[in-house]
Each structure stands twice: as structure tokens, then as C-alpha cells.
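Dear colleague,

As promised, here are the two records you asked about, laid out in our usual form so they can be pasted straight into your sheet.

NAME FIELD: protein one
SEQUENCE, THEN STRUCTURE:
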Amino acid sequence: MDTAFTRIAASQSAADPVVAAEQASLLSKARAVTRFLEHDDTLLATDALAALCSQLSIGQIDVANAEGTLIASSNASSIGTAPGTQEGFEWVLDALEDPTAELLKTSENDRSILYCCLPRADIEGFILLTSDDTIVDDALALSSVDALIADLPYGGDLLFQAEPGGADGFFSDSGSLCLRRTADGVTLIAARENSVVYNARNVALVAVAAILLCVMICVVSAYLLHIELITVVDRGEPEAGQEENEPEAEALPEESGLPPEDELIPPPRARREKRRKRPETFTEELSGEETLPEEETLLEHERAVENAPRQIGRRRQKTKDKEAEEPVNDEDPFDKIVD
């Protein structure tokens, strides 16, 4: 719409040179008619004035007396009227007051209609020439609002000239969003369908959503890049003879702060072998370790003897054939406790 008003403002004066040239041509024709009437009064006849109009390409010639009443005209129905008393023609009376006046006017409703009024040279009065110039029509048609906005790229919108009146701004009509603007006496209305307006809004919302999604992805990526990696220890494949159902450690011993599970609980095989050790072997192992002081060793030995459970022998039914006594258990209780 701004482009349309700019073009209209630039073309308002485009027809002015054509109008000025046609007015100058009409003025020269009016001077010629004045000289003709000064030398020959027979030209005041209606037929003579009509022939003169066709020769000079003039629309109408009117001749008035000193009172402003038409005494001759190329249009017989206009004789006897007073143009000075009609609305919009008061200016012709200035020719009666100033014998040197040369008055040029255009119609208020149609700029292609030109008027020229000159005082008569032989008697008091004036002549009035009216011309509907086709050249001016063509120039005005090229500079009209409809012609100026006809080739503008609307992009699917509707743009047209409206009658003056009404408040400028947006309004809805016939399922379209409309905008009315007025500048230099010209009112234009631009209309766009609601479906097109909503499509543009939806595209804008999708673009905003895509931008937010990209921002979220960037934030998550930056967070993941700053996370420390967790090292997973791969113990490899179990060796031959190793139990397959042995549970895997959930965390490294260094991280948990506890000794390894295999150090806390010895495997069952090792326990069985330890039980089967002979006292000599056990004594040898004890000799390799740090020995306690003798007094502490003796006290612990006495406590172990006192707290040792009594050896209750189970009696077996003796058969009549075997009356032999059971062998006496000479094993030391301390050795049993150690086992």
C-alpha cells in the first residue's frame, strides 16, 4: 500500500504539462474568435458558430453582452441564459470588469474539460469557449489511481480505490482482513483472506518451535560433554576351572574402600584344605607369623582349654560277637579347636 501511495503522489502532476499546453492552445483559439467577431457580426449566428467550433476543434462557443446574458451560442438552447449566475461560473464576470483579463479554468469534476473567457474587443461583453480535450483525457487516464495500482504486485492480496469516508485502520469483512488508508484525498483498501493470514501465523509458530528445539539440543549436548566418563572393568573370559556362577563385583575395591570379596571370604576349597592340615603344618604356619608374648599365649591356651566343649562319646550297640572296648580318644582338645 505504501508503494501505491508513493506512485499516486508522483503521478498527480504528470498530467499538468498536458493540461497547461491544451489551455494555452484554447487561449489562442479564443483570441482568434474574438478577432473574427470584431470584423464580422454574421458569425454570431448559431450555424456559423457551430461551423467555427468544428474547424477549431472546440466544444462550444458562447457570446454574452454587458449584462452577462448569452446573446449567441453554438448551442441554441443556451441562448438567453446567464453563465455568471450558475454555480461554478462566477469567475466569468471578471471579464466584464477587466477588459484585458484572460481567464482559464478547468472543471472541478473533470479536469479534461477546459474553459477560456475573454472580453470582447468591439463592444462590452465576453466570449466563453468550452473544450473537452481527448488528449487531456488520455493523460489523465494514464495518471488515474486505477491505472497506477493495476500493475502493482499484490502477492495475492486485493487492492482497490474506495470512496472517501470511514476511519482508517484494520477491519474484517467477507472472511478477509482489510486495511483502509487515506492520503492526499485518495482512499485505498487492501484485503487479504483469513486463511492466508493464519498460514503465515502457523509458519511463524513452527519456526519458533524449531528454534527452541535447536536450543534444547545444544544445551543437552553441552551437558553431556561435561559429564565424566564411567570406566567399566572388563575381567575378560573366565579361566578354565573357575566357577561360572561367581558374582561380578559391582564396584572396584579402590572406589568402595573395602577389601576384595575374595579376601573377606575364602573359597570353600581353601577352607576344606585348611581343615585337613596336620598339626605339624599348622605349627609351621604359626611359626612363620608373628608370635605373641609367652604369657599371652599361655593365657589364651588356658582359656581355650576351659571353654572347650566336653567330649561326649556316643555309645554304639555292641554286638554279642564283639565285646571289645571302644578305643580311647587320646587327641588333645586344643588340636580339635584348631581344626
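NAME FIELD: protein two
SEQUENCE, THEN STRUCTURE:
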Amino acid sequence: MNDAQIAEWLCNEFKAEKAEKVEHIQALWSGYGEIARYELTSNGQSRSLVVKHVNLHEQTSHPRGWSGQRSHDRKVSSYFNEQIFYQAISPVLNQGALNCKVPTCMSTQHSDQHVLLVLEDLDASGFRARYTDINPSTQMNIVHATIEWLACFHASMLTVDTSKLWPVGTYWHLGTREDEWQVMPNSALKSAAKEIDATLNSAQYRTLLHGDAKLANFCYSRSVVSSVDIAAVDFQYAGRGVGIKDLVYFLGSCFDESALAQHAPGCIGHYFNYLNNAVCQVAPNIDIKALEAEWRYLEVFAWADFERFLSGWSPSHFKLNAYSDAKTQDALSRLTRE
């Protein structure tokens, strides 16, 4: 579909007199389409919506060289996964007791050629700021508030049926990254990759993971006080797993090597404090002490799992640092002892 066809469909879908693309927000990874803002006009009144348009037949050059059928199939699967998330799960979050804000899904359409997601415009709903817009003096407050959002999200999803989504969340999990694993140099990490994956996936306590919980996928109000001032986007890789995987990945998106050593332990403590309160509120039958003990134990395996992915996908990536490596070595040592 081109812009004119999307505009015509929006007019029909929302009984609008006019629909106009007013802003290109961003291109999708590897050229699979775009996210754009459209303005709809009816009876002299205007409103804006965000349209995520995915071209399912695009197979353009990957920024790091990872093109091919397996990569394409994963992308296509992830876009259908995201459509299911917005249709089935976003209402549960937006109407839930913990106020985990995500964009409301206004409509969807798909064919064998494309997926259209029509979403609430978070800018118009007051979530205009991004992390880069925040005063540096308050950025740790933003980090803590976003961790609170993740804790609320994980608590909310502990007992919700998400069986129509990916059975394993995150974009880097081993089941979808055989090619990257194959090119890893021979190492203890490569040899232990399947055991690390199994250790994480066999946990007793699993929730729904965001799957790509980096700073760039959160939107903020101008005055962030708590998690209710935050909304999350981009749920292509939502699926089951231990919440610590989302948290470890998020911390890696916030801090460099030295800052991780300084801030990560406190941030993890903050997460579990908030998670304890949230679980008691929405899932009181969950043994929160046992859950926390399990997820804390699995922290090093979450670091090792992501390091395994980066080691094959981009061996010179800046996130492959001494802090992550120390956590990975700890995970490997535990496997040896056990």
C-alpha cells in the first residue's frame, strides 16, 4: 500500500472526510516499512493517529549484514506477533490496576503483503518526551521510573494468558538466532549456549517480556514522577520469559561499563522492591519470595544469553564489555559446578 491508499483506507475505517500523512516518524529496521503520523478530519475536527505500515515482502540489506530467509521469516513472524499483542494484550494493560500504559490499538489490517497497525498517538496523549529530551540532572530518575514500569508490566502479565504470542520473548533468544550462533568462535560460551537458553526457559516463574526494552522504546510525559508518566512501544518480540531478561537488557541500554558497575546493583534492587509491591497487588497467590530468588539467580544467565547473541551478531559491539563478561563467566562457572 502506498500513502494514498493508506489514507483512503483510514477515511473508510474511521468515517473521516480526509486523512493526510503529516509526518514520517521513522523507518522500520532493514527497510520493512515505516511509522508515520496521519491527521484525520471529520466535521471540522482533527485528530492524529500513528500508523505502522509493514511491507512483508521487503528483504533489504541488513545494517550489519544479517540478511537471508531465516532473518526475513523472523521479522514477518514478529510483526504478526505485535499485531496480536496490540489486539489482545494492550487492553489488559491499559485497563489494569497498575497503569502500564501502551498505545491503544485503534484498528489493524493485514494481508500476505502487508500489516497495518493504527495506534493511539502518544504525543497527543501527553507522552511527547524521549529520554534524550530529559534534563541530564534527572536522568537517573527516568531510569528508576522506567524500571518501575517494567516491574508493573511483569507483575501484570504473570497470570495472563499470552499463549497466542511468541512462546519465548526477546529478539535475541537462541531459537531464532541459529545463524549468529553458528558464526561464533569456538568458546565456552558457544558450547554452553543451549544450556543457558534451557536454564532461562525452564524457570518456574515466567511472565510476558517486552522483548526489546531499550530506552528508545519508552515515551515520557514532560514531568516524570513515576511509572504512570511512561508509555512503552514496539512489542514485536513480546513473549514469555523471566523478567530479569528485560531488566538486564534495559540496563545495558542505559549505562556503559563503568556506570553499570556503579548503578546496576541498585537498579536491580529497585526493580525487585517495586515488583514485590506490584505482585502483591495483582497476583497475591504468587510466591514473590520464591520468584525473586529465582530471577536474581538467573541474572547472570540473562547477561550471558545476550552476550552470546552479540558475540555472533556484532563481535565488536560496545555492549560487549568487562561488566557483561564478568557476569557471563559467573554463569559459565555455575553451569560447571552444577
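A couple of things worth noting about protein two: The longest strand covers residues 45-55. The chain has two domains: 1-120, 126-337.

Best,
R.
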